[in-house]
């Protein structure tokens, strides 16, 4: 289920959202009726779950000027916080959607690659929430902020922050938080093994989740015909939700 969190911004229920995927991932989704949450440490973005450089400099400066710490002790503060951010990253599972109102050519290319075979699922925030209502796993939802400096530092802001380079994604992030607490004194020098390092599948109501299935703009009529036949065998209720890309 999606839980409320005052640290996170959730969009309106009627907000349109998209998820692009290649054909194997789509077929896995509709046959398993489970939404995959990837371990954040597996993401290709090198800045994912990392403290911004601006914050690191500010923490060191504050430790020295306001707390009176030596440069060495101030650096220890920074190192502890960086390690904690890494632990949070390694123990956070994410599922990403795009809040664009229309199709994104860039995202089609990024998620489908050179093969071009796949689909784009269009739904709404409210449908996404309803599809997860029966799940016993508590899931956080928040709009991603694109910034190179965090005004406040906690695990929720860290896990919903991305570099300005990725602003075009307009990401809405679902994530499963597997870390308790966010205080430096609670981590010390321990190193915790990542939970679910390969990700986690969460049961969903697939018919509630999917409003429309957009055919890749890079595929011909044969692909649509094949997909219709496949869905007729797996889940006939999805066949009428197929639409052609407008690109």
Task: Produce a short descriptive summary.
It is built from eight helices and eleven strands. By secondary structure, the protein is an alpha+beta fold.
Topology record:
Elements: E1 16-22, H1 23-32, E2 34-39, H2 53-65, H3 71-90, E3 92-98, H4 105-112, E4 118-124, H5 125-131, E5 140-143, E6 145-146, H6 155-159, E7 161-162, E8 171-177, E9 200-203, H7 206-209, E10 212-215, H8 221-234, E11 242-244
Parallel strand pairs: 6-7, 10-11
Antiparallel strand pairs: 1-4, 2-3, 2-9, 3-8, 4-10, 5-8
What can you tell me about this protein's structure?
With 247 residues, this protein is α+β, with helices and mostly antiparallel strands. The protein has one domain (16-244). Helices cover 33% and strands 21% of the residues. It is built from eight helices and eleven strands. The chain has helices at residues 23-32, 53-65, 71-90, 105-112, 125-131, 155-159, 206-209, 221-234, and strands at 16-22, 34-39, 92-98, 118-124, 140-143, 145-146, 161-162, 171-177, 200-203, 212-215, 242-244. The strands form three sheets. A five-stranded antiparallel beta sheet has the order 5-8-3-2-9. α6 (155-159) links the parallel β6 (145-146) and β7 (161-162). The chain is elongated. Mean pLDDT is 88; it is low at 181-193.
């Amino acid at each position: 289920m999606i839980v409320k969190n005052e640290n996170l911004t959730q969009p309106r229920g009627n907000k349109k959202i998209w998820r692009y995927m290649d054909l194997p991932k789509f077929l896995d989704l509709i046959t398993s009726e489970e939404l995959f949450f990837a371990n954040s440490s597996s993401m290709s973005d090198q800045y994912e779950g990392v403290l911004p450089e601006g914050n690191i400099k500010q923490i060191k400066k504050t430790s020295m000027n306001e707390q009176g710490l030596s440069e060495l002790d101030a650096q220890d503060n920074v190192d502890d916080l960086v390690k904690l951010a890494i632990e949070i990253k390694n123990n956070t599972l994410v599922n990403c959607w795009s809040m664009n109102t229309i199709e994104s050519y860039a995202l089609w290319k990024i998620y489908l690659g050179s093969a071009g075979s796949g689909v784009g699922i269009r739904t709404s925030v409210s449908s996404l929430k309803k599809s997860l209502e029966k799940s016993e796993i508590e899931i956080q939802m928040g709009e991603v902020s694109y910034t190179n400096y965090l005004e406040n530092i906690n695990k929720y802001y860290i896990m919903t922050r991305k570099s300005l380079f990725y602003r075009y994604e307009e990401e809405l992030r679902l994530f499963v938080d597997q870390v308790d607490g966010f205080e430096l004194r609670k981590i010390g020098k321990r190193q915790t093994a990542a939970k679910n390092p390969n990700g986690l599948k969460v049961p969903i109501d697939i018919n509630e989740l999917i409003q429309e299935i957009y055919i890749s703009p890079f595929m011909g009529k044969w692909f649509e015909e094949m997909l219709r036949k496949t869905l007729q065998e797996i889940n006939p209720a999805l066949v009428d939700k197929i639409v052609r890309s407008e690109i």
